[in-house]
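4.2 Preliminary Data

To establish feasibility before requesting continued support, the project team ran the inverse folding procedure on a target of 290 residues. The structure was first converted into the token representation described in Section 3, and no sequence information of any kind was made available to the design step. The complete token record follows.
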């Protein structure tokens, strides 16, 4: 069953720029009652909030939040519930990436940061609002942004891949739990995209038949799936193909197909990533490939 955004409370993490901002703009255009923006970059957040108000939205609630901090999540969630209400639609979009060999990752700056922002944050943010979404008994939606690399191993993305692999398992398990417990009015959608042109994966190259996607295209597809309560959306079609081949081919055969044919294993060879803006918190602003 598809729902309407009109009059509803929409909360988006990583909302100051990139795809998070596109989700926010879509919510405003479709008449959301309130749009709640979470982001670490306070300056970009205020700029986005001001521009959304210029679009005609009156109920924009920007909060500077470090989603890697549980106390920050819990404190801000209480503010949101008090000021804007329990979200009807929650989009866990925030994410970061570190592209390097595993042994080159710094324990805290890389490993802990990626797992906290990409994996633990969606869980903790959802946990902060889900009881209220369940109790209200009205149709609600959650979109968790994962990644194609959460289904296929990719060199120089071991920690990022682990973080998104976990998101896929958690997100779909939660969907089943809600349905089996009689709380299916809260529908969970898992977005599993390949590379997107947002700058977060600057320098990465899409595998064979998998071009870098335009952010607006992905947002449009994810938005429709979210409102319809679809369990999973994989973009583009080659993501599902790759997952299917990975599951049926023996490991040596798959390594040849992924490495020599589709060039999945070489996709991060020229990765540079987005350069942090002066005075900003760098990559903790959005999710592109997620």
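Position-by-position output of the design step:
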């Amino acid at each position: 069953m598809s729902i309407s955004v009109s009059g509803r409370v929409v909360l988006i993490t990583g909302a100051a720029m990139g795809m998070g901002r596109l989700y926010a703009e879509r919510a405003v255009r479709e008449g959301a009652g309130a749009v709640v923006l979470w982001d670490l970059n306070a300056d970009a957040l205020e700029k986005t909030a001001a521009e959304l108000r210029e679009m005609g939205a009156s109920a924009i609630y920007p909060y500077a939040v470090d989603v890697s901090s549980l106390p920050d999540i819990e404190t801000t969630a209480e503010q949101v519930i008090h000021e804007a209400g329990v979200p009807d639609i929650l989009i866990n979009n925030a994410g970061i990436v570190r592209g390097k060999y595993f042994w080159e990752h710094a324990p805290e700056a890389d490993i802990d940061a990626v797992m906290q922002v990409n994996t633990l944050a969606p869980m903790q943010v959802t946990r902060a609002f889900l009881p209220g979404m369940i109790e209200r008994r009205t149709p609600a939606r959650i979109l968790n942004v994962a990644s194609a690399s959460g289904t296929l191993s990719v060199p120089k993305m071991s920690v990022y891949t682990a973080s998104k692999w976990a998101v896929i398992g958690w997100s779909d398990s939660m969907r089943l739990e809600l349905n089996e417990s009689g709380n299916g009015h809260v529908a969970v959608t898992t977005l599993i995209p390949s590379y997107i042109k947002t700058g977060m994966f600057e320098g990465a190259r899409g595998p064979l038949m998998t071009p870098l996607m335009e952010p607006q295209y992905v947002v449009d597809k994810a938005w429709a799936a979210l409102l319809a309560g679809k369990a999973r959306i994989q973009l583009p079609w080659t993501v599902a193909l790759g997952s299917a081949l990975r599951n049926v081919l023996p490991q040596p055969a798959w390594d040849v197909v992924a490495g020599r044919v589709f060039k999945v294993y070489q996709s991060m060879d020229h990765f540079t990533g987005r350069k942090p803006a002066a005075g900003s918190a760098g990559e903790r602003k959005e999710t592109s490939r997620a």
